[in-house]
Design a protein that fits this description.
Largest sheet: 5 strands, mixed
GO molecular function, one term: ATP binding
Domain Carboxyltransferase: 6-204
Keywords: ATP-binding, Hydrolase, Nucleotide-binding
CATH topology of the largest domain: Cyclophilin
Number of strands: 14
Structural class: alpha+beta
CATH architecture of the largest domain: Beta Barrel
CATH superfamily of the largest domain: Cyclophilin-like
Strand order of the largest sheet: 7-6-13-5-14
EC number: 3.5.2.9
Helix content: 10-25%
Radius of gyration: 19 Å
InterPro entries: CT_C_D, Cyclophilin-like_dom_sf, PxpB
Shape: elongated
Low-confidence stretches: none
Mean pLDDT: 89
Length: 244
């Protein structure tokens, strides 16, 4: 018996939208990953785009929606079977020192915690990648400690530096390139989470986990040099339970 009642919708002539209940949930995420793996085996010519509670299937050509949807419904019955999926924990360094922590002082004053307490809470737990979007490689990370939830800035910045680590509401994330942005910036990572020259450009996937660890400015400078030289290696671990 499947855990969720899914909605299947036509999404233009060449796409189908599959929706789970509108809730941010690890159970929904795991169910989506299972279903995505099964779909990819039968629709390898489709692009499959995951989000918080949906999968969008995009074809290169117009499709017969009712036929595909009926087949997808039958495939969903296989989701309860054990499906192996490779999921990783990525350990990413962050420097929380000036000038990288543009909004850390304001956050500290608002939530009533010291800067060091905020840094401790931000690095104390792993975050789940629920979606990738807004910018190529921009990861929406769930699991932020409630004590450091903080609304987005009322006036977004026109330029947020690449690698900036920010908090926006209940989420945290890394800006993969310089761009406008309204999240509260508390640090910077020297890691390039998106590189158009790599294959794939972003090695991190929906369902993976991110764990931040604090570094000082000297280490940030060293890691930046290593990243630019192509010799820096992000430390990763396979999640213990690969049968999501």
């Amino acid at each position: 018996m499947n855990a969720f009642d899914l909605e299947y919708r036509s999404f233009g002539q060449m796409a189908i939208l599959i929706e789970w209940p509108p809730t941010i949930s690890e159970l929904i995420l795991e169910d989506m990953i299972r279903f995505r793996l099964i779909i990819s085996e039968h629709y390898s010519h489709y692009e499959i785009v995951p989000a918080y509670n949906s999968l969008t299937l995009i074809s290169r050509y117009p499709i017969e929606h009712s036929t595909v949807i009926d087949h997808l419904k039958s495939l969903y019955g296989k989701v309860t079977q054990r499906v192996a999926a490779k999921r990783k924990i990525w350990n990413i360094p962050v420097c929380y020192d000036p000038p990288f922590c543009m909004d850390l002082e304001a956050l500290s004053a608002s939530v009533g915690l010291s800067k060091q307490e905020i840094i401790y809470l931000h690095t104390a737990r792993p975050y789940t990648v629920y979606a990738i979007g807004f910018l190529p490689g921009f990861m929406y990370l769930g699991g932020l400690d409630e004590r450091i939830h903080f609304p987005r800035r009322e006036k977004p910045r026109l330029k947020v530096p690449r690698g900036s680590v920010g908090i926006g509401g209940q989420q945290t994330g890394i800006y993969p390139q310089e761009s406008p942005g309204g999240w509260n910036i508390i640090g910077n990572s020297p890691i390039k989470v998106f590189n158009a020259l790599n294959d794939p450009p972003c090695g991190i996937s929906v369902g993976d986990q991110i764990r931040f660890y604090a570094i000082n400015k000297d280490m940030h400078e060293l890691f930046t040099i290593q990243v630019d030289a192509g010799v820096f290696q992000i430390k990763t671990l396979e999640l213990d339970d690969q049968s999501v």
